[in-house]
Specification:
Chain A is α+β, with helices and mostly antiparallel strands. Chain A is 53% helix and 11% strand. Chain C has 596 residues and is α/β, with parallel strands linked by helices. Chain C contains 18 helices and 18 strands. The chains are: A alpha+beta (167), B alpha/beta (393), C alpha/beta (596). At the B-C interface, α11, α12 and α13 of B face α2 of C. Chain C: This is NADH-quinone oxidoreductase subunit G.
Chain lengths: 167, 393, 596
């Protein structure tokens, strides 16, 4: 909670405390915390002199702002017709099998949340996904396995390293 | 790959290393001179609505107020459109140049690029270009700064007044009009809001002159247009083509030989069936029944293996989710259209339901608060009317 | 710029000031255009799209509420195109709405239902969307029930909570088909900053926001012969009740109301106006005590300005938003709670009744009073002081249920002991009324002379202006109040919590030097309360206020301290203002609540 208060006050310092700063501040919190907790929104409301319902109402308007905990990486799969025409559903099936989750869920290890999203603006090279901010295009089930494995390896390496530091 | 019939222009994507001198040169010109050239060029907004750009700048310049803003609308969310991303990746300085000239014309000190959340990966590179461009402005003596404002995933924020709301920390709900942005936009100040491509075109006009631009295109649709080509095509991608081509020529160049329909203008655009390709011209004037179609540049091709029911269903799901939800016709109407075609497809509702839904779509067009709700009827009517049997069986 | 704009509506010429909307222009020539999201108290939203009209020559329709008329405009409000669009809008709204009208609390008083009936909306052409929605009902608040299945997303409640009250306990959340009116994280209203003021209820066109009603519980109590049911009626009820029973706004129906309450079966029909007078005595003396301690004794512990404490919506607002400022609140209970505490002690003893067999009911213009009565502090009598709180609207419903022809009732009078009131008690119902009543008494206590205003009418504190100020210089006080000689008493009157917030910001940062502030949560004061008949507008509030001041002017006794029932209460029971019993029964304390 104290960490949150500091985070919000740092963001408020950077972006200002007018209503206009609301989106950049929420984006900043999400970048840091992966989602907007009720505590975080309370802090934002306090900093900007808004009601919590106003903060909540604004946050829930935007699909990239989420009010439930998410995995460390968010996979957003484009569901526009052109991506569907080029194999989006096969890709989705592969991801669901691979990660053992359905759309909207987070993997047991907390590494990935799988979501569908509207047009990513990669229609000429579909099917496309975003992993966090990074676009991946012209995907096939084979390629997505490789990409997911890379993220998993990186995460394993990181936790090993932090384990070494801790021990 | 080059199209066979249509001339690929590549004015916008032409590598040009003279942005700084051109900006200096253009900024040295008189405001009226600049606006008049823009008006003479016949340039219209490339976001899809097609408002004359020169007039927009002039109205904003003439509007009373000390605070004015230039906003570049890079909330490219229309399904099937990706040209703005490409422009911002490859020739961002041309867009910035357009913004700077506009700032000079209207007297703005601050400009923003509203970049959609899906394009966050462009941000760092774009910021670098902006930083470099600010030095050019300082040299030219123009007190103008450009900031990036990040969107967060909401199609409706591409609607200009919803975009202002979003920048003001609100839900992206479109405002009542009038007043229009030229009088009352961001922070209630007179604001020019232009699409990425529109701003890039102004650069070409300042560089090559209005006449060159005007020579391209037909009647009320002048110049070139960047098209985002996707779907059943062997050559998907970005193409800058002259306005005024027939859809037949387009399909000959971009189709896979089996094209049964082209969706012009994305989910909010029109679906043109094969039998109308010859009669349909890509331009601003008129409607589906006429001869020309407006577009933000999204061209989705569908061949005969595709179910137009699935296409429409996909668009309607998109609208049900991306409607801001404030006005009745759009919030409820989109749900009714979606559930309605589902019911007809499952055989639970009679095929006559489609006529009632067409009537609903028309009522939405007449009553919805903003372009989103009004344009749902475009794709709905053009798909249902032309592919009625696919909706039923 | 021309002074007026000329246009045509339905082929009739209209001449109106520039900037006027099509809706205003149409109304000015008595053409009605149906509306739902529009409310004269609120900013224009233009989202229900019911008021669409046709402009000759234009393709798309225009929202009459949001479109300014322009010179030469030709408008049609009843063309085929318009009628069709209106009907479609209504049918769309109803497809998202649980239309179980006969089971609905708002049945017969619902704007959506009225329009559906007017436009003959029958079994719709659209799919019922309700089964696809996870609609929930929040009935955890003692004051307000929120039923999302009845909501048409007009956002009147959201605008009310933001614009009139500056609370924003309700906001619009999510988008598209999921868009809904929500509290923070959709928590129950009882768990958020909601003040229970009920302004959202009086502004809701449907049954989505209604008061929690206690009608059946009250019938049950009256049916029980072993119970003695006492009822009190607030000052603002008698000038508004008639509206819910077929009268124009601004009628005083005190006598008929009393007669109706007796017919309904209440055993004692008493008057909150009596305890309003009592409140003035207690609160007035508390003010004087604070002035003495601050001005004469220089006691830094004592806070000025003192603010009134009769409005439970205002109290909960302060508890949530400015808990640090709670010491500014008068400790005097509201008239309802003073009455409740005395009903089961003093009154019970006077009529020889065991308090445990008594049921205490109040009729209030207010939904927050339901919450107030349920506060754990409000059991000074050893029992719950007020058992059930009915709104003006609920009373009107009971009168109809009982088959009483209200308009033909003979006038009747309140029972004795706690039934008499002064004009000062009456004006509690209007913004500025508590201030005026307090000044009438305080000035006289301090100087021994009547307050120096013509006819005791302290006009500067009257009216619907959001913030009013008045100053009164005290000269030649009685010896006991010598320290007040030459002191200018500075007062402020605010109604609506948006105004209260502005004033309390000034109190917090010390940028105002008021001694006494009257704050009422609702616009117009209690006469515009969240429990009053609908519809409400500035015009209706104005009519009610006039009735209140008429009532006051017609009273033989105009000052609280001259109310004979109050005088007798002090002689026989309380002994003195702020005395031991007063503290036990008539004063309270407050709790700090979470702001978020």
């Amino acid at each position: 909670m104290n960490g949150l208060r500091e985070l919000v006050s740092a963001l408020a310092q950077k972006h200002g405390t007018r209503r206009e700063s609301l989106l950049p501040i929420l984006q900043g919190i999400q970048a840091h915390e992966h989602y907007l907790s009720d505590d975080a929104m309370v802090e934002v409301a306090r900093a900007l002199d808004l009601s919590t319902a106003q903060v909540y109402g604004t946050a829930t308007f935007y699909s990239f702002l989420v009010t439930r905990p998410q995995g460390r990486h968010v996979i957003r799969l484009c569901r526009t017709i052109t991506c569907v025409m080029h194999g989006k559903n096969q890709l989705l099936k592969e991801l669901e099998t691979l990660l053992k989750v359905r759309v909207g869920e987070t993997t047991a290890d907390g590494l990935f949340t799988l979501l569908e999203t509207n047009c990513l603006g990669q229609c000429h090279q579909g099917p496309a996904i975003l992993i966090d901010d990074e676009p991946y295009t012209r995907l096939t089930p084979e390629r997505i396995r490789v990409i997911v494995a890379e993220y998993q390896q990186k995460a394993a390496l990181e936790s090993e390293n932090s384990g070494l530091i801790n021990s | 790959m080059a199209p066979r019939h249509l001339m690929r222009l590549d004015l916008i994507f032409k590598d040009e290393h003279d942005v700084a001198p051109l900006v200096r040169q253009t900024l040295a010109r008189g405001r009226d001179d600049i606006v008049n050239e823009l008006i003479a060029s016949g340039l219209k907004g490339r976001g899809g609505a097609g408002f004359p750009t020169g007039l927009k700048w002039k109205l904003t310049a003439d509007a009373p107020g000390d605070e004015k803003y230039v906003i570049c609308n890079a909330d490219e969310g229309e399904p099937g459109t990706f040209k703005d991303r490409e422009i911002l990746m490859r020739v961002p300085e041309k867009v910035l140049a357009g913004m700077a000239v506009c700032a000079k014309v209207i007297g703005a000190r601050q400009g923003f690029i509203y970049l959609r959340g899906e394009y966050r990966f462009l941000r760092a590179q774009l910021q670098q270009v902006i930083d470099g461009f600010h030095a050019v402005l300082d040299e030219a003596g123009l007190p103008f700064r450009i900031e990036i404002f990040m969107g967060s995933g909401a199609y409706i924020c591409g609607e200009e007044s919803a975009l202002f709301e979003s920048m003001e920390g609100q839900r992206g709900e479109p405002r009542n009009k009038p007043p229009y942005p030229t009088q009352c936009g961001f922070r209630n100040a007179p604001t020019v809001i232009n699409n990425v491509e529109t701003l890039a075109h102004t650069y070409s006009i300042f560089k090559y002159g209005a006449e060159k631009f005007r020579d391209l295109g037909v009647q009320d649709s002048r110049g070139s247009k960047v098209f985002s080509v996707s779907g059943d095509t062997p050559v998907p991608g970005i193409y800058e083509l002259e306005f005024g081509m027939t859809l037949q020529r387009f399909v000959e160049d971009f189709g896979d030989g089996d094209t049964k329909a082209v969706q012009v203008g994305g989910a909010s655009g029109f679906c043109v069936p094969r039998k109308r390709f010859e009669r349909t011209i890509i331009g601003y004037q008129g409607k589906l029944t006429g001869t020309s179609l407006p577009t933000g540049g999204s061209m989705m091709l569908f061949n005969s293996s595709r179910s137009m029911y699935n296409v429409l269903h996909n668009y309607l799901e998109f609208f049900v989710e991306e409607s801001c939800g404030q006005c009745t016709p759009c919030r409820v109407g989109t749900q009714q259209l979606l559930r309605g075609i589902e019911g007809v497809k499952r055989g639970e509702l009679s095929s006559a339901t489609l006529d009632a839904l067409l009537d609903l779509a028309e009522t939405m067009r007449l009553t919805a608060k903003c372009g989103l709700g009004q344009s749902v009827a475009n794709s709905f009517a053009s798909i249902v009317e032309n592919f009625r049997e696919e909706m039923i069986y | 710029m021309p002074h007026t704009v000329n246009c045509q509506i339905d082929h009739l010429s209209v001449n109106i000031q520039p900037g006027a909307t099509i809706l205003e222009a149409a109304r000015s020539i008595h053409i009605q255009i149906p509306t739902l999201c529009y409310h004269s108290d609120l900013c224009v939203a233009g989202n229900c799209r019911l008021c669409m009209v046709e402009q000759v020559g234009a393709d798309r329709l225009l929202p009459a509420c949001a479109t300014p008329v322009t010179e030469g405009m030709e408008i049609l409000t009843n063309s085929q195109k318009v009628r069709h669009a209106r009907k479609v809008m209504l049918e769309l709204l109803m497809s998202e709405h649980r239309s179980d009208c006969t089971h609905c609390y708002k049945n017969g008083r619902c704007e959506l239902q009225n329009l559906a009936s007017e436009y003959l909306v029958q079994d719709g052409r659209f799919i019922d969307l309700v089964p696809f929605k996870n609609y929930t009902i929040d009935d955890l608040s003692p004051s307000i029930i929120k039923d999302d299945a009845k909501c048409i997303r007009c956002q009147r409640c959201v605008r009310t909570c933001a614009e009139i009250q500056a609370v924003s306990a309700l906001a619009v959340a999510h988008k598209g088909a999921e868009m809904k009116i929500s509290t923070f994280f959709d928590l129950p209203m009882a768990e958020v900053v909601c003040t229970n003021c009920g302004q959202c209820v009086t502004h809701c066109p449907t049954g989505a926001l209604v008061e929690k009603n206690y009608i059946d519980a009250v019938w049950q109590a009256m049916d029980d012969d072993a119970r003695h049911v006492v009822v009190q009626t607030a000052p603002a009820v008698r000038i508004a009740l008639g509206e819910a029973l077929g009268l124009e706004p601004g009628q005083i129906v005190t006598g008929k109301m009393v007669a109706a309450l007796r017919r309904l079966g209440f055993d004692s029909v008493l008057d909150t106006d009596f305890s309003a007078d009592l409140t003035i005595i207690e609160e007035g003396h508390e003010l004087l005590q604070r002035l003495r301690e601050v001005i004469r004794d220089k006691n830094p512990q004592v806070k000025l300005p003192m603010t009134t404490s009769c409005s439970p919506g205002w109290i909960k607002f302060l508890e949530h938003l400015y808990p640090d400022l709670l010491p500014h609140l008068s400790t005097a209970k509201s008239p309802q709670q003073m009455f409740g505490a005395l009903a089961k002690t003093y009154y019970a003893r006077r009529i020889g009744m065991d308090a445990k067999n008594m049921v205490s009911v109040s009729v209030m213009p207010c939904t927050a009073k339901k919450f107030e009565a349920a506060r754990p502090e409000m059991c000074a009598s050893g029992f719950r002081d007020v058992d059930y709180v009915l709104t003006t609207r609920e009373l009107a419903m009971m009168i109809r249920q009982a088959g009483i022809d209200f308009l033909s009732l003979p006038d009747d009078e309140f029972d004795s002991i706690m039934g008499q009131s002064s004009g000062a008690g009456v004006i509690f119902g209007a913004t500025g009324g508590v201030m005026e009543a307090a000044l009438r008494t305080v000035y006289e206590v301090v100087t021994g002379r009547e307050v120096p205003f013509d006819g005791l009418n302290i006009v500067p504190v009257r009216g619907l202006e959001q913030v009013k100020e008045a100053a009164l210089t005290i000269s030649s006080p009685l010896p006991e109040w010598g320290f007040l000689d030459g002191v200018t008493l500075k007062t402020c009157v605010v109604h609506g919590l948006a105004g209260a917030r502005e004033v309390m910001k000034k109190v917090a940062d010390g940028s105002c030097d008021y001694h006494f502030i009257e704050i009422m949560a609702c616009p117009g004061g209690c006469l515009g309360g969240g429990g009053q008949p609908m519809p409400v507008s500035d015009h209706v509030r104005e009519m009610r206020a006039r009735a209140i001041y008429r009532d006051d002017a017609g009273k033989a006794i105009r000052k609280s301290h001259e109310n004979p029932d109050v005088v007798k209460l002090y002689e026989d029971f309380l002994k003195e203002p702020l005395g031991h019993l007063s503290h036990q029964l008539l004063h309270t304390h407050y709790v700090a609540r979470k702001r978020y």
